[in-house]
Design a protein that fits this description.
Layout lengths: L6 H33 L41 H26 L5 H24 L3 H26 L5 H22 L6 H8 L3 H8 L4 H21 L3 H27 L4 H24 L2 H24 L7 H11 L10 H31 L16 H5 L11 H17 L1 H7 L14 H6 L40 H26 L4 H23 L7 H20 L4 H21 L3 H25 L4 H8 L1 H13 L5 H19 L3 H19 L5 H22 L6 H21 L5 H4 L1 H15 L6 H20 L2 H29 L4 H15 L1 H17 L2
Helix pairs in contact: 2-4, 3-4, 4-5, 5-6, 5-7, 6-9, 7-8, 8-9, 8-10, 9-10, 9-11, 10-11, 11-12, 11-13, 12-13, 13-15, 15-18, 18-20, 19-20, 19-21, 20-21, 21-22, 22-23, 22-24, 22-25, 23-25, 23-26, 24-25, 24-26, 25-26, 26-27, 27-30, 28-30, 30-31, 30-32, 31-32
Length: 881
């Protein structure tokens, strides 16, 4: 059934969509008006003192000269500014080096008067010269001298400390000097507004006074944190109100570093506090940092606002959660932080700016994700821990769930892990259940951006015509992507981002709730250390519940694909885990795998979708195959003796495939049965007679599948190959030295049947008609010929292979040509091998590599021709029957 919302809810939804459309249309009209104005710029009117070239305007050209576009800057005959900047930088650097050398080397050779006079004169001159240079228009030179003046003031501070106040504490003196220099350079930069260096330098110097003062006073760590935070707040104010991009960028970098340091100090003190009272002091620091970050996010641009909101949210969680966490044991502290992180979701009702609100919600999601990451390793240990039981199957039932896992995790410290998973699962499940209410609460996050109303020009312009919105035009770059909501566009249609739809988010919430709830139940069993039998039964019951949910969700027709897929993956994963867990006891193994086979078979019958049905059916076949293996172990059979028992399930899959016919599930079921047959062959490899028996039985099963026309091309060839292989293995196991006595009686009637088949159906493949009969004799004879020291068998085999090859070439039969040619080549190689080895031993050692190199050169030189020859040979073989 399709959900029909109430009229009031549907009306509210329509109003929101109409408002979004109006906002989108207003923004498009505003943008179109701006682009039209940019395409038809008015002629500039020269005002007194106005220099068009300084703003990138084209200079007036001679009459008849082509008009230059806006932004054209003619080439100047003067030297490039890059060379000028290099020269000024080098000059300032040399002067700074000279000043440093004078202060450090020549300072002691002068008296106190000379020292003061030199320093005062040089520093005063360096500070005064930029003002004069700026009035003459020499801005770059003024910048270089301002940099020199900055270095000189630093040297003055060092000189004053070394001569006038040598006994003063270095950290305290540095704090005072940094504050004085920051004030000095702030005043200097404001007085000479055209210089770009003084104000950023003042911001850099302002980072250190409070920090060095705290260190000089041997203040505790929390005071150092407050000093760092105060500096970060000052940087934030400068970043919001500062003059020029250089000042703001410097303040942003400094504020980020100082604020991060303050947060780390507060977090370290909070996590190591001995009690709630001890955690309250750094908590106050963290709360102050959160308030400062949120205040900055209130006025910061979009990207910075989100970052500030995220920092504020994380700091608030650390501050509030650290107080109860200090009173809890290590296993429960994560839960305290998780509860505080979930409480941040209430910010949607706080009336914050949208970007800051998103940042706070991102912090809430980060806290939840961190708590889940803390709880996932023990869950992985529960799922993968039973793998250790493979080394000692049926050793006996362990005492409890933990001992069966063989894990060394400190489970007592992970007691809160199932609670964390259950809490998040409950919240996601509630969101899935009451999704319309969640959308209504989260509506402020999707509110459209505030856009200016279109002016008269844009209204007069109307809707853009087809030409203006063609691909490649400026208006086309502002069109919203197909299917995207109006407020969620980005400039440029090709790179526009689309947020997930509400239905997709709801499905993700449901899938997450299901997965986390299942993990919480598994972890609860380990934390409580349930008895082994109860743990096995509980995990099996969970698998049954997941299967029921997968069957029900996959057949409800609502398209909620995430929930049934999660249930399907959880059911298969849980079945593997509980199956491994049951290997400790024989009775538990039979009970669990029998129940799993029945449960998955029932799910395959009940589910309506094809893909889940195939997965369930294949899993049921696998569990049944494992049960047959258990039967062999219970009967104390060797692996090769138990191999025929394993073929019971493949035989049932052949019968089931005949019953299902062309049902899409038939092929996966039969392939799963074939995998079980392959396991049986692997078990029988150690004993040749049993291997021959198993191969023959597999051939019978393949022949039974070949009765069906849709399986005949593959299953028929497979059956013939298995029968022939079983014959070879049986002959080898019986130490038969003349296999032709056994294979020729099979080959002759097989070839007669093949000839009859070709006469009745000339289009039949030569591989189907003659391949099995020829292979039954040629291949065993070739295998014996390679170990035969006599000359008669290789000679007769070579003659027979030559005749078959010639017949294949004469009658254009691919099977005869390929089989005869391969056997003839291998037989000839066997006869030539001793002589080749003798010749190779007589040749110099350098000759074989040289011959190989010449061969490679020849092949490389004629590579294209050889490639064409290979293609012609392939085409010729392909045209044969």
């Amino acid at each position: 059934m399709e959900h029909v919302p109430p009229p009031a809810e549907e009306l509210a939804r329509l109003d929101r969509e109409l408002a979004e459309l109006d906002a989108r249309r207003a923004q498009l009209l505003t943008r179109r008006a701006w682009l039209l104005a940019a395409l038809r710029p008015p002629a500039p009117t020269a005002a007194p003192g106005w220099n068009p070239s300084a703003w990138g305007a084209p200079p007036p050209g001679r009459p008849g000269a082509p008009a230059q576009p806006w932004g054209y800057v003619p080439k100047q005959p003067s030297a490039p500014r890059s060379a000028q900047n290099v020269l000024l930088t080098l000059g300032g650097l040399l002067l700074a080096v000279a000043a440093v050398a004078f202060t450090l080397v020549s300072w002691g050779s002068m008296g106190i008067g000379g020292r003061s006079a030199v320093l005062a004169a040089v520093t005063l001159g360096a500070l005064t010269a930029p003002a004069v240079l700026l009035r003459r228009g020499l801005t770059a030179t003024a910048e270089a001298l301002a940099a020199l003046a900055l270095v000189l003031t630093l040297l003055d501070v060092y000189a004053v400390h070394a001569v006038a106040a040598p006994d003063t504490d270095g950290l305290g003196f540095t704090a005072v000097a940094a504050a004085v220099l920051a004030v000095l350079w702030t005043t200097y930069g404001l007085a000479l507004g055209k210089l770009r260096l003084p104000l950023p330098a003042a911001v850099v110097l302002a980072q250190w006074p409070l920090l060095f003062w705290a260190w000089a006073a041997d203040a505790p760590a929390v005071v150092v944190g407050w000093a760092l935070l105060a500096t970060a707040v000052l940087d934030g104010v400068i970043a919001l109100r500062g003059k020029g991009p250089g000042v703001r960028v410097t303040a942003c970098v400094g504020g980020s570093a100082m604020g991060f340091s303050a947060l780390m100090v507060g977090l370290a003190l909070s996590t190591t506090a001995s009690g709630p009272l001890g955690a309250a002091v750094p908590g106050a620091l963290l709360l102050a940092a959160a308030a400062a970050a949120l205040a900055g996010a209130w006025r910061a641009p979009k990207g910075f606002a989100r970052t500030g909101g995220a920092v504020a949210g994380l700091a608030a969680v650390a501050a509030v959660g650290g107080v109860p966490a200090a009173a809890l044991s290590d296993g429960w502290r994560t839960l305290a932080y998780l509860l505080c992180g979930l409480a941040l979701a209430g910010v949607v009702r706080a009336g914050l700016p949208r970007d800051a609100m998103r940042g706070v919600l991102a912090a809430s999601g980060a806290v939840v994700a961190g708590a889940l990451m803390w709880a996932l390793p023990p869950l992985a240990a529960v799922l993968l821990g039973p793998v250790t039981l493979l080394s000692d199957v049926w050793a006996g039932s362990p005492d409890g769930f933990r001992s069966a896992l063989g894990s060394t995790l400190p489970w007592s410290e992970l007691a809160a892990a199932p609670v964390v998973l259950a809490l998040v699962a409950g919240l996601l499940g509630s969101a899935y259940r009451w999704w319309p209410s969640v959308e209504r609460i989260a509506a402020p996050l999707g509110a459209p951006e505030e856009t200016p109303k279109p002016d008269a020009a844009s209204n007069a312009a109307g809707t853009p015509d087809a030409a203006s919105t063609a691909p490649g035009t400026p208006e086309a770059a502002w069109t919203a992507p197909p299917g995207a909501g109006a407020p969620w566009y980005t400039v440029g249609g090709a790179g526009a981002r689309r947020r997930p739809s509400g239905a997709a988010l709801r499905r993700a919430a449901g899938a997450g709730a299901l997965a986390l709830g299942w993990g919480a139940l598994l972890l609860a069993g380990v934390v409580l250390d349930l008895p082994y039998a109860v743990a096995v039964a509980g995990e099996t019951a969970l698998v049954g519940g997941l299967l029921a949910l997968a069957v029900r969700s996959a057949g409800n027709g609502r398209g909620a694909s995430a929930v049934p897929v999660t249930a399907l993956v959880g059911a298969v994963s849980g079945a593997v885990s509980v199956g491994l867990l049951s290997l400790a006891s024989e009775g538990a193994a039979y009970a669990v795998f029998g129940a799993l086979a029945v449960l998955f078979a029932g799910a395959a019958v009940r589910v309506g979708a094809e893909v889940p049905r195939a997965v369930f059916a294949v899993a049921s076949v696998v569990w049944g195959t494992v049960l047959t293996g258990f039967a062999g172990r219970s009967l104390d059979l060797d692996p090769h003796e138990a191999a025929p028992l394993v073929l019971v399930v493949p035989a049932l899959t052949v019968l089931l495939g005949a019953r299902l016919r062309r049902n899409p599930v038939a092929l996966p079921v039969e392939l799963a049965g074939a995998l079980g047959a392959l396991v049986a062959v692997g078990l029988a490899v150690s004993d040749a007679p049993f291997l021959a028996l198993v191969l023959a039985l597999c051939g019978v099963l393949a022949a039974g599948a070949a009765v069906r026309p849709e399986r005949r091309p593959v299953a028929g060839s497979l059956a013939a190959a298995l029968f022939v292989l079983a014959t070879w293995v049986r002959l080898a196991a019986s130490d038969v030295s003349f296999p032709e006595a056994y294979t020729l009686p099979v080959t002759v009637p097989a070839l007669v049947v093949g000839v009859a088949r070709r006469r009745r159906d000339p289009e039949a493949s030569s591989w189907t008609a003659y391949g099995p009969g020829l292979a039954a004799t040629l291949l065993p004879s070739l295998a014996v010929a390679w170990t035969d020291t006599d000359w008669l068998r290789p000679l007769l085999l070579g003659v027979a292979a030559l005749v078959i090859t010639l017949l294949g070439a004469r009658h254009r039969l691919q099977a005869l040509l390929v089989l005869g040619g391969v056997v003839l080549a291998l037989d000839g190689l066997h006869e030539l091998a001793p002589y080749v080895a003798q010749v190779a031993g007589a040749l110099p050692r350098w000759l074989p590599p040289a011959l190989a190199g010449l061969l490679l050169l020849a092949v490389g030189a004629t590579y294209e021709q050889r490639l064409r020859d290979a293609r012609r040979l392939k085409d010729a073989l392909g045209r044969m029957r």
